[in-house]
């Protein structure tokens, strides 16, 4: 591990004796999941609970002429069949726009379609029955008369005058457009070698192993709705549900226990979830919706469907003079709610060229509507596209001038001592470490030896490639992401910490857990700051009634924002405890410390009183305390970054792979990542976030693609035909760190959740092109299927 | 629709007599009738491996089998393997190595890993990767799982018989 900044002058709370910060400790409560005793929403049953299934449109675009559900209503176990028109009085429609994304437009979307369906899979009726099976039986008896409408599927022609406009009230199919022109691109390109390529990205999706699941329980007597949902953002769900059901937020409680995978898929509000809330209110009973796998593929948000023309200018000495992109993406028929579907394209514009010094950058992105499933934010939003375009162009530029890919990066990456600085797109960088990271990566992978091995194997007709990809990563988002655009999505988080009557600690946090280790990092920080052993710290999260208000866990914000709130809350509680201890012990707070669950002398470390004994006195014998002392053994603190809109991190990845030029198959041999996420709270958890992220990026690079036909039919909506990475084809992934803590918080932690996904596909694509260089083939399309590779080789 | 039929089987060693619809699959029977929700349903067509259980000693995808087909069989789920202590060392290795994040694939993964270790006590990493290839994990990237299975194999090999 390389530390780029000298530690602060004073000893921080993180350096206390027995600190858990920076240590690998097992996550609390893993046994529950290991023994099959997790509490996922799909496991939940409530008294009088009914099940809903949704009849979904088989057409990508059609008018609903009539729905005949009479026969279905007579089927056994059926309680109710509800159409969009019938649900309309219970829940209002929504429009997925944000004011800071200027010009972004979308059309009103209903919980269940009324009059018209706009993608294959949009719900047209809800069937509520005693079991999912009974509801599905009844669903087969519903007759819907559709009038098929012309579909808009190809993003490239969506804006043509001859193409029908999906929402006539909007005037055209353009949802959002952004342009940027920084420096002097024309001048820079005019005296450079210019390399140009079209980058194509497959539409893919998150494939959480537990599908989206919700149980909505309207208690008419309490006039309160309890929503059990696998979500990353409980308070956001509370706000949205209340808003559209005509309730106050106090009337809605959102509970989120174990979640079977999220990756950004479960940070949105889906129409079928809204319908489930509304059905519970309408039918006055608990209603459960669990998507099946076909529904997941057809309705979970998709991402990354971009086509991006990129240009780079380079001089013979390797100086990169400019980047230019023209990006196009199709997002389905609606901008998703409430985070919108313009964020990914916006991120692409923000991030292209980000690791490099050139000030010349021009970009355009256009976001268009089409009759396919909706697209929105999935892990590493925009990063894989920006990184693949940038790093693909850099490698093409290096090849053009005959320079090693490492050397061109050395000459153009922003120097490690140039910070703070800003990118041409206006992104502010506090402290990045591109050069230290690259140096570490080359050492880990033994770059020169690999190049020698590659050359030796080429002589034997074995074609291996090395691909390098530097990247920047957006983490710890402030209100700049959503709040400034009017979304009620909190960018601050809160933590409440209290000492209970036996000297244990209960900690309520507004960040959520989907397996990243939110509970662990909270317990590690609180235990370290308080001087309490981790097994005495219990963390409560995922319940809007029982945690402070906050954003949740997404965009790599849990550790950096929720972790800092935990640190500050624990510091406050620690001071309160020491104040009481000083009164009990006739000492001063400054003369005391808390170590190993006991109050000790700060000077000689001698034990004075155990925390359990202090708590006993405070809670049960306050009469023995000196007059005027009112102990407060609970403290709450909140945190949000204010100085930087985002805490940018950086890193670099490398892929070593072999291409079978006869079959087009790619074998991944090894993958390396060096990442700089600032203070590392738990090295194992950070590394596992990165490994998991890399493999999702490798899936995008080689396998994952939602394949639509020209009529807007998703043709591979099942796990057998939509390929995800399996253990047999994944490489071992070696991870190293450079540590540049953010000075914006005392904790210094930045995020690490996007890093792996951000650069993996770029590294693989560069490695494939490196392997294919003797054949003169260049591929700028993912997934790199055998068909794509053999086509590029001219074999098919 | 057919009427319920009687089925008798052992679930985690406990004799069970139940009336089930012929179309009920074993995964739903275990989850809904037996309330053994550790058997997870991920794809419902035999691809993802989350619903893996053991029937008469062999691992089976419980979403691809009907409950009535388990007549007379001995079915073991993650809850049974946990309570008997059979895989306590494997579970400890998963905990130490953080070989799970969301935990949804974990019961099936443990079932399949234990199956490998019973049939091949000293598998190399590629053999572990191949055997686990029918069990999808979207969180970990698999390496930690491979590490945990490898570590368990080594510990078991060193343990006196």
How would you sum up this structure, described in words?
The complex is a heterodimer of chains A (796) and B (161). Chain A folds into 3 domains: 2-38 and 492-639, Aldehyde Oxidoreductase, domain 4; 41-149 and 208-299, Alpha-Beta Complex (Aldehyde Oxidoreductase, domain 3); 302-306 and 317-332 and 344-376 and 384-479 and 643-792, Aldehyde Oxidoreductase, domain 4. Chain A contains 19 helices and 32 strands. Chain A is globular, with a radius of gyration of 28 Å. The mean pLDDT of chain A is 96. Chain A is an alpha+beta fold and 796 residues long. Chain B has 2 domains: 5-81, Beta-grasp domain (Ubiquitin-like (UB roll)), CATH 3.10.20; 87-158, [2Fe-2S]-binding domain (DNA polymerase, domain 1, Orthogonal Bundle). Chain B has 6 helices and 5 strands. In chain B, strands 2-1-5-3-4 form a 5-stranded mixed beta sheet. In chain B, a hairpin with a 2-residue loop joins β3 (52-55) and β4 (58-61). The mean pLDDT of chain B is 97. At the A-B interface, α1 and α17 of A face α2, α3, α4, α5 and α6 of B.
